[in-house]
Amino acid sequence: MPEWNQGYMTDVNYTKNAFNEFSPANINFALTLSSQPVPDLNKPFTYAELGAGFGLSISSWAAQYPNGEFHSIDFNPSQSAWLTKLRDGAELKNLHIHERSFNQMLGEELPQFDYIIIHGILSWIKPEVRKDIRDFMTKFLKPGGVVYVGYNAQPGWSTVGPLRHIILEGAKSTGEKNPIVALTQGLNFLKELKEAGAVYFKAVGNASNWLDSWFQADRNYLVGELLNNEHKAFYFSEMMDEMAEAKTSYVGSLELANYLEPLITPQEFLKRLEQVSGSLALRETVKDMLYNSTFRYDLFVKGPQPLPRTKAEKALNKVKVVLSGLRGSLPEKVTLKGVQVTLKPEVYEPVMEFLSKGPATMEETSKASGLKFNQAAQAITVLLALGWAQAAPPAAKVEAVKKYNLALDDLLGPEAFNSLLTVNGSWLRCGFLDRLYGLAVMKGVDPVKFVTEMMKERDWQLSHEGQPVTEAAKLKTFLKDQVKKMDEQLLPVFKRMGLYS
Known about the structure:
Layout (H helix, E strand, L loop, with lengths): L23 H10 L11 E6 L5 H9 L3 E6 L3 H14 L4 E4 L3 H4 L7 E7 L7 H14 E12 L7 H15 L4 H17 L3 H5 L3 H10 L2 H8 L9 H9 L3 E6 L7 H4 L2 H9 L4 H12 L3 E8 L6 H9 L2 E4 L9 E4 L2 E4 L2 H11 L4 E2 H8 L3 H14 L2 E3 L6 H15 L6 E3 L5 E3 L2 H12 L3 H11 L4 E3 L2 E3 L2 H25 L5
Parallel strand pairs: 1-2, 1-4, 2-3, 4-5
Antiparallel strand pairs: 5-7, 6-7, 8-11, 8-12, 9-10, 13-14, 15-16
């Protein structure tokens, strides 16, 4: 590995992912649930992401939020170069790309930030680099600014440590230089140990589940997770202490299920949490043990100023959300943080029906559904926690979002990708054909003709009932049938999400 990587695995590029959780509107929603004041997204604001990778998240917010100034910071030159192409293609004048280490950024002239995003990387870097990040926060986070920190958490990660150690030591012993090959060899060896009856897999219940999940996961992602020389899974109290050095305090979580504690927490869990309610550090750590947390999505604020109850409720009234995806039938039960929750039709049906018409505030949803505000607010929070609804940006421009989607598609080329950026929400997850159909709708062209051209240009092949569709006539008939279904099912979704009018 090159010396500039500071212990972070750079031999393989990270995956191209976008995270809806990091949208300014979603962060504001979580802060509002925490009774914290939020930046006004209709006015100028600043946002930085540290370790942004290919920058799909931060670049998409730059397209959606014309009032924001966005700074992507990542020392990997290939990833920064790719993001630069995307920025130029989408004409994002409010996106600034810094191909620098965190230490180098300390000498840069930067604005004071309203938002700083740090996802995952604190678990994968050296202690001295974590110190650089804290110094960055101390210098560049404005008073009242929020930091999101996502990190591998104890005690849930304790199962993974021995498995990761075997993979890492195996790679060292074989001298294999190709990280993907080394990872695959390590996974196969762990599988052999399990099949040989290794007592560890019997004694530690979910070790097998972890190993099985890795065989299904993206190998580029796993290289960063399992082959880094540096790794640390934090107890909450450890992270709280480190963040205190940057003058920040814990206020809440981007895992929205955490705001549903009375709804999803078994009574025996609540009793145990009440016993330790006098200590934030202990209470959060006990909660992580109760739920066996493997990852935390923490929000820290520099100088938090909790809102009085009346102002907090007023702010929550104004939060705007939109139903994302198809308006399907309501399941009787769902799972949140491993706990089954019953969805009452008399509560969720009217909320989902109203939000299926387009973005609406919590206050509007409460009135239209005939529910008490607390009922509607809880139902909406559940929908967002499940990914069935999204926080809505206040001022996204249709043309900017369209230009972004088309520039991204042009840059990706034949590379597989399963999302579209929307106007009224954040990213909409969709299938292969759904995405191409959406691009055709945005371009205002015939979907059948567009998909056919893309299939030929990118050497893609469709299959139906397990068989490839290769003949031109059969392909055209198949696509016409699929487009008719998407006209009926997806077009209303695209209209609701602002991609079609």
